[in-house]
Fold this protein.
Amino acid sequence: MLTLCFLILIIILIVIAVTKWKLHPFLTLLLASIVIGSISGLNTKAIIVNLTEGFGDTLQSIGIVIACGTVIGTYLERSGGARSMAAFVLNIVGEKRAALAMSITGFIVSIPVFCDSGFVILSALNKALSKKTGISLSILSIALATGLYTTHVFVPPTPGPLAAAATIGADIGLIILFGLIVAIPAAGAGLIWAQIYCKRFEISLENFSESKEPQAIEPKPALAFAPLLTPIILIALKSVADYPTAPFGAGYIFEIITFIGHPVLALLVGVFIAFWLRKKGSTQETHFDWVSTGLKNAGTIILITGAGGAFGSVLRATGLGDTIGHILSQWQVGIFLPFLIAAMLKSAQGSSTVAIITTAALIAPLLQPMNLTAPVAKTLVVLAIGAGSMTVSHLNDSYFWVVAQFSNMDTSTALRCHSVATFIQGVTGITTLALLSWIIL
């Protein structure tokens, strides 16, 4: 119990440092690693070795992937590709099902694009659609926000699930497959909440007027979808090729698929496909700037991810995982444990990515005592962390304020619409995962 108290104390200190003292998560996780190592009796050399090796090992598998994914997202944002995808989906479902269209759009766009950026990009379309159809902006905004949020926490190549997969050692292809299975009912729950409850809130659009200027040339939908879907397909094919039944054999086809299906190569292919999204007449300097912007945005995420890996490495070296795993395994809560930890961290400090990274570091050494070491079990653990990391988005979450401000919502309305929606989504996600674990494990 003393060991468990140490870990709880460290988690509390992480939350306080990030929320109250405004210390950056990168520094917080590194300091937490040093403190937990010292308290547990590791010598200084062991602390440094595990700190640096944990940081390096994590980035070895995930750093390039995060960088490439962020560059793809930048190209979709700046080229108008995200809008092109939205218009394509809207044409399919029709204006009367505009809320469904925005939910689907958010669901797709947020796979490579951060949910807050995606919401900003699509907010003008949201308002124009509300004005044209007469559907309340509160409905469309929550439909879009929950659609974006769902794949942001469940489906790679967004950084959170990728970081958790690297820390826990889960197969990314399986996470994509099961992530989509879990994400669909979670997004559906958000959409239902938007249509049933949020329709009571009427939001004024008096200050919104559509631009009269000619619209910039946007890429065709097929081209806009290509850098997003291609890496997902390649990674999924690699997972299929690696199955024990060897569906692609063991020859050249297998070698090619497993090579280009590696997340690093797959995302790199996606980057080069994204180059075709440049607007007509763009200069080489603009091209360079777009890549640079994506890499700058990736820097913070990469550092936090590495620090999370360092924290997990030190934690494993202390042996705390075995002790805590023994205690918690007696609770027989299974995948509810990572969900509860992630939900606690998310609700306390606001960042889904930090909640995912930190929870993955805490859970990794507990997998064996909890009998969750099988590939599918690790996949469900990663997704349970994702479900917790969306429960709930409120005042301390930047995404909450993006949704509120770009939807003309006051704080009270945003809390009742957006925050409650994310709670319902998180509960729906963990419920779906519990059913899957009961069937599969």
